[in-house]
């Protein structure tokens, strides 16, 4: 599913124009990204939580040449699905089999 499909479904569900639905979806995503950029954790009950993890700098290997390279430290976003999310995914997966 793409962001455009999410906008379409959300707009149809609450009977608003797609333009307004797009603004809402973009605003929610921007709020999540901004909070993570500020080092905050985002918890959406029933859906999951987002947080940022720090990775230390390290040495790695270029797979093409085998040369050792330095990989700089960075922060990476992480997502953990909530209990309801996992249950729904597993229930629907079981129904398909």
UniProtKB/TrEMBL annotation:
One of its GO terms (biological process) is chromosome condensation. GO terms for cellular component: cytosol. Keywords: DNA condensation, DNA-binding. GO terms for molecular function: DNA binding; structural constituent of chromatin. InterPro entries: Hist_DNA-bd, Histone-like_DNA-bd_CS, IHF-like_DNA-bd_dom_sf. It comes from the Bacteria. Belongs to the bacterial histone-like protein family. This is Non-specific DNA-binding protein HBsu.
